[in-house]
Amino acid sequence: MNFNAVRLLSFKEMRDARRNRWFIVVSILFALLSVSLSLLGLAGLGSLGISGFGRTAASLLNLVLLIVPLMGLLLGAMSIAGEREQGTLVTLLAQPVTAGEVFLGKYLGSALALLSTILLGFGASALVIARFAGTQEISDYLYLVAFTMLLGLSFLSLGFLTSVFARRQATAVGAALFLWFTFIFLSDLGLMGTAIVLRLSPPELFWLVMINPAQSFKLAVIGALQKSIESFGAAGLYASDVFGPWLAVVLGGVLCFWTLTALSAALLFFRRRCAD
Amino acid sequence: MALILILTSVRFLHEGYAQSLTVSPSAYATIAAALEKAAEGDTILVTKGLYAGPLMITKSVRLEGQGEPVIDGGGKGTVVTIKAPDVVMRGFVIRNSGDLLASENSGLLATGARPLIENNRFEDVLFGVYLSRAPGGVLRGNSFKGKALDTPRRGDLIRVWFSDGVVIENNRTERGRDVVLWYSKDMTLRDNDFRQGRYGIHFMYCRNAEVVNNRFVDNSVGAYLMYSEALKLRGNIVANNRGPSGFGIGFKDMKNAVIEENIVTSNRIGFYLDGCEAMICRRNVIAHNHIGFNLLPTAVRNKFEGNYVLDNVEQTLLDGSSIQTVNDWTGNYWSNYRGYDADRDGIGDIPYKPMRFFELLTDRFHELKIFLGSPSAQAIDLAAAVFPIFAPTPKFEDPRPLMRPAGRIRTNKSAPRPASWWVLSFLFFLPLAAFLKKNSDRF
What we know:
The complex is a heterodimer.
Chain A: H1 3-19, H2 21-46, H3 55-86, H4 88-94, H5 99-133, H6 138-165, H7 169-198, H8 202-211, H9 213-226, H10 233-243, H11 247-275
Chain B: H1 2-6, E1 12-15, E2 18-23, H2 31-37, E3 43-46, E4 50-52, E5 55-57, E6 62-65, E7 70-72, E8 80-82, E9 88-90, E10 93-95, E11 106-110, E12 116-118, E13 121-125, E14 127-132, E15 138-140, E16 143-146, E17 158-161, E18 167-169, E19 172-174, E20 178-182, E21 185-190, E22 193-195, E23 199-204, E24 207-212, E25 215-217, E26 221-226, E27 229-234, E28 237-239, E29 247-252, E30 258-260, E31 263-265, E32 269-274, E33 280-282, E34 285-287, E35 291-295, E36 303-305, E37 308-310, E38 314-318, E39 333-334, H3 357-364, H4 375-386, H5 418-438
């Protein structure tokens, strides 16, 4: 493995991400929405004069749940399929680098671009919060940022997986959007129906819900903000009974699992498809 | 013994009928010895030192501690017992009672009328002050810290039993079971701070009490008011009560209570009403609880007005189906109200109707709560709003919702005003726009 090549390729990928209009639009949306949500959250809190638990972090949670997976999926989906459609992927692979190096460079570059976007959005909100509400609950906030990064990375890997299979960029984007819809809405709605029809027990329901990286992220962040996940009813109580303080680690583990599994699958198929 | 040496002299001050006796490094060996000599109405001054309990007061005397003398129960039974009327007990540290729940081991047990218990510190006691048939008792400025036992093994730090006209003010309890009042009427509880217990306060079969400006924080239940009539709760702060039932303020079979201007925040359930009638609940702040109001079908003819209902995960949970019309919800502020105010009179032009489809689902299938706060749950609510075929019947209706919180609710000066956040967003937007312009050739 030639790390210099990987580094160069990742810089190239970051430059590509900066030129990606989809990505830029979504990033700006994220930053603007997070800043205005922070301000609105503070306004609500201010009128009461008493503080809740990381209220702003709680309102940012929904924004993150919708937008960050979308950013990751789009960025991942376009990275390989885009170059393949333009024909530049062939040129790239003709250079004295291995397919694995190309793939890793592309992934690292996209990941850095994604993480810096997340940091930009959260950083801007953090400034606003620090200005109006002080920094007492900064650890809650950092926790949210860290888990958002994990969430972004797991969906970026999923995006790469769609990208490896698609011949054309539009196909990859379509597949990514479908994945987004599945993970954020369809799977939950399906599970709700299943839970009602089959009368799933709280442990069964918890394990099924936890598989979804988006839900894992939500459980971890709300659990940390409220210091317990009792609001999630019986299934939440089951989780805190079984895992106790290790719950956050387990949920973080789910996110890492998705990141690594999707990434290695993508790498495997990328190598195989590039061999021909 | 060192203890006896401290108490070797006595001073008599003759002042008409009432004497003043001093227990100090002079004559009276113990407080009990001074009590024996004292006549009705005498004052006994007790200087700094360690005195062994138990102490039995059978005369109407005033006991004044100077420099916080300590009465130690030695871990057995009740430390101080007052059997006479009109006893004053002021400025003592009373500690180390027994820990037998069944025999109600207390720091201080008063069975005479009108005891005045003021500025004492109770430490390591099972029950704190137990007023048993002690009408007109006054507890003022005492602090209580219970024994470090599991909650089921602790005692009540303040317990009032068949004692009318009791005044409890400026006390602070910590780590007890309940502050509980049984079968009494005409009471005042003011400026107390009750925390880390089971029930912050607990009324049983009481009538006509005023509970004003207290704090009930970090208990299992903030205030649980049962089988009582004509209570007034005003200006209390009820926060962070998150035990298994976790009520901020719970009412069971209550009548004619007035609950106003309380701040009820971050509890599991803000207000819980079971079998209540003709209660008036106005101008309270109910914020950041998991459930704001939880009403059982037995709660009827109650009035909720001018409350500030802010960001509770579930604003109202009404169990049972036919009850939306039996309580009056007119004129509250609801943070999830999505109406408008065209005529600018401060009152929303369309009624507030809580009908979140997802809440309806979780009310029926509790296990679905795990989906709370995810976009899918909001999608369900949106679907119900957009396609009326899904819309559940509203739980109740507030025909005149407030656009802005009313009454004494404070406004934080440092909160950003709308103008300033537009400016901020703009400032943030400018560099981005500049960046885009610079890079526009690359698109």
